Amino acid sequence: MWLKFGISPAGELVPVDEAVRGKTKLTCLYCGGLLTARKGTVKQHHFAHTGETCQPVVHRIKNRAFPSLPLYDNFLIQLKGEELERLKVLWREYGREQRPIPKDLTEFRWILKGLMIGDRHCYQFTNLGRIPVGALPLGQFNQVQEPMLLSELDKLERSANVAIAAGLSAMDERRADLEIYRVQLRRILLNSLYFLEVRADGETFHKVGITTRPIEQRIKEVGRDMRSHFSEAEVNLLGLWQHRGNVELYFKHRYQRFNFPIGTLTEYFRFPKVETVLRDLNGMAPKVLSAVEWEVLGGKRAAS
User: Fold this and answer.
1) At 64, is the pLDDT very low, low, confident or very high (cuts 50, 70, 90)?
2) If we measure between CA atoms, which residue out of 110, 94, 4, 12 comes closest to residue 48?
3) Closest by CA position to 129, among listed 170, 166, 101, 163
């Protein structure tokens, strides 16, 4: 896990994906040191200190302790590769048919993690356990993830406020952690999820993505992208879900076997029955923002 945000001279948090590669005028939220945007092809894009890396960032890199949104871009729940493959097999052989899973095929740590539930003899997948294998419908995914998002926010707010009230030396670090988390939460709440149908040169495929701009503008951009690969292209909107920026990456995880890259464009899919996918998307309840989420969208800064 790496440092993904820097502070602009105007005091705004800037994600590494919006920064130009190389040395920047952005500074570290933890120490104020200048940052360099590392945007290569091997490691994830991240910021590194232009000079010596400060200890708070060293500690968070070493312990993978930067604040991050639960179940946003990592759905494996700390499972090792072999464990994940075993879970996939169990899902195919037992979970998909809702058959009880024999105890001797399970791991106790899966039960501790909340991935399975049962008695001394047999077990079944929980909703959380269905996420690593991409088997949880999108509507139920929201029901699992959303309370976790707000619980993590509450934990960080309480930690920062306790440190501030007690005058602890770590208060600036905890305040920085809270700031980083809030800006990530704000970004997914600001974004709408869209689902497009693309007809090009006799082929039909689909695109998923998120945007904060008018969807008409995004559709025109997709059309321009398609004309770089096809002689004719028609793009139609099949659905738009406000404040659902949290779902995009889980959608890609859930439907990765249908991924249909077009050149360097990777957010396209070819589905044998798109009606099934649309039912999944339309199974999501409209997002109703809570008072806490409205406050996050208001752009207020962390505790001070």
Assistant:
1) confident
2) 4
3) 101
Residue 72 has pLDDT above 60, yes or no: yes
Find tokens 């539930």 and name the residue.
117
This prediction's pTM:
0.91
Q: In what order do the strands lie in the sheet with 192-200?
A: 233-241, 192-200, 203-211, 268-269
Any idea what DSSP says for residue 77?
T
Question: Which tens digits make up the pLDDT trace of 236-288?
Answer: 999 999 999 999 999 999 999 999 999 999 899 999 999 999 999 999 999 99
From its phi and psi, is residue 277 left (phi > 0), alpha (psi between -120 and 50) or beta? Answer: alpha
HSE-CB for 263 with a 13 A CA cutoff: 7
Domain residue ranges in the chain = 1-64, 81-133, 138-189+286-304, 192-242+248-282
Which amino acid does the sequence have at 277?
V
Contact 146, 296 (CB under 8 A): no
The edge-to-edge listing of strands for the beta sheet with 5-7 is: 13-15, 5-7, 22-27, 34-38, 46-49
**Apex 102 CA angle, 131 and 99, nearest 5:** 60
What is the pLDDT of the chain when averaged over all its residues? 93
Residue 53 — φ and ψ, nearest 5°? Answer: -70, 135
Q: Tokens at residue 37, please?
A: 């945007």
pLDDT of 108 > 60? The answer is yes
Residues 6+ away with beta carbon under 8 Å from 50: 23, 33, 34, 35, 36
